[in-house]
Amino acid sequence: SCGHIRISVPIVRLGDPVMASCTVSPNCSKLDREPRILWRLEDGPNQPGDKQWRLPDGTQESTITLPHMNHTKAFLFCLVPWANSFQVLDQAEIRAGYPPASPSNLSCLMYLTTNSLVCQWEPGPETHLPTNFTLKSFRSRADCQYQEDSIPDCVPGDRQNTCSIHRKHLLLYQNMVIWVQAENVLGTSESPKLCLDPMDVVKLEPPELQALDINPDLVPRQPGCLWLSWKPWEPGGFMEQECELRYQPQLRGANWTLVSHLPSSKDQFKLCGLHQAPVYTLQIRCIRSPLPGLWSSWSPGLQLRPSL
Amino acid sequence: TLPLPRSFLLKSLEQARKIQARSSVLLEQLCAVYKLCHPEELVLLGHSLGIPQAPLSHCSSQALQLTECLSQLHRGLFLYQGCLQALAGISPELAPTVDMLQLDVANFATTIWQQMETLGVVAAGQPTQSTMPAFTSAFQRRAGGVLATSRLQSFLETAHHALNHLT
């Protein structure tokens, strides 16, 4: 072909300069012997290069420096005047963006139902360039000071900021180090490292709260009382847990009252002093205890009528 | 007696319960799918298959010898992890449960081993897998699964008891 563009660096940091050269072959028929080489960025004006000269073999070369690349993606054209217009001899794509910032807010949850450790993070500001995120981890010991076995990289789906480490890669009840690496052509960055035992970040589900119908012949009816029972969420049943119950009269602006340090399983639990309203909303949540853990969410609200 | 960290004991108790829970699931599945619901009917077969009954004699509350108990616990878990490996390919429906159970047993063995290392009571390197039962038929693999899992259950029951005693 008649013309050929060469770009010093096809991908630059946004705002950085770009140097390009265009060479026009002498045996390009139908063109003037020494055509004046012009440049155009996207749909901007045609402009001459900074310099143009003739190589020993007759090739014409022009160079241009775009001082500040402010497009994240742009086409640079090399043209020559021809008849009463211009002819495009070649086109090159230039991209600009930023090196990735350190991913932040890395957090992980262990799901007992899928037996996987799912981590998520915030990618940081837009880089305008294809950027790969990789969840990296290795097994360690108590204080995560040194690496034991490495764990295969976890590569998230396209444009996903979450990755799931399969159970077979996890050594439960031992600490592991986890972090996120972000990489594009302009650089690499890493998130702060987490040191965690997957079992300390189990995503615990709340128990199922149930109302108990107590036989008045067996237990005398007490005004303002109600009876409850709950069982731990089955997949987490092997974990010792502590729970707390909260209840609230169905009144506008009413506050919650909290009952703490409850067991994770209770066949019969009596709650009294409920005289403010005919209906109360009750919820329960649990946390692994005494071993470290995360609170489950509150159970769905249970609406109950205390005895009259 | 050697000081055992409370977190180690609590984690070990939880791991034992976790494995017991999953073992129950596997036994229920073996019973539902293959009607192999009574391990006691498979004792004879167990002898011929060489399904081990891992000892925990040093873990009994009357004669607790901690270092030997931890060592027996680790060897037993290592043994049963091998048995579970031999169950590979038992059936597509059961494979996920067997895989997870095997991982849980292996992880519990690591917890014990690392604590023994921390206490400096590790004489030699990790034990190597002794000869594992070789199942020559689908039935043997299923029956072996029932036996190995039920023996793992009772093994863990004893271990849980001993660990509870130490907590």
From TrEMBL, chain B:
Record's subcellular location: Secreted
Predominant place of localization: secreted
Molecular function (Gene Ontology), one example: cytokine activity
Cellular component aspect of the GO annotation: endocytic vesicle lumen; extracellular space
Residues annotated as transmembrane: none
Keywords: Cytokine, Disulfide bond, Glycoprotein, Growth factor, Secreted, Signal
S-S pairs: 31-37, 59-69
Record family assignment: Belongs to the IL-6 superfamily.
Name of this protein: Granulocyte colony-stimulating factor
Species the sequence originates in: Peromyscus maniculatus bairdii (Prairie deer mouse)
Taxonomy of the source species: Eukaryota, Metazoa, Chordata, Craniata, Vertebrata
Gene: Csf3
Covered residues, full protein: 42 to 208 of 208
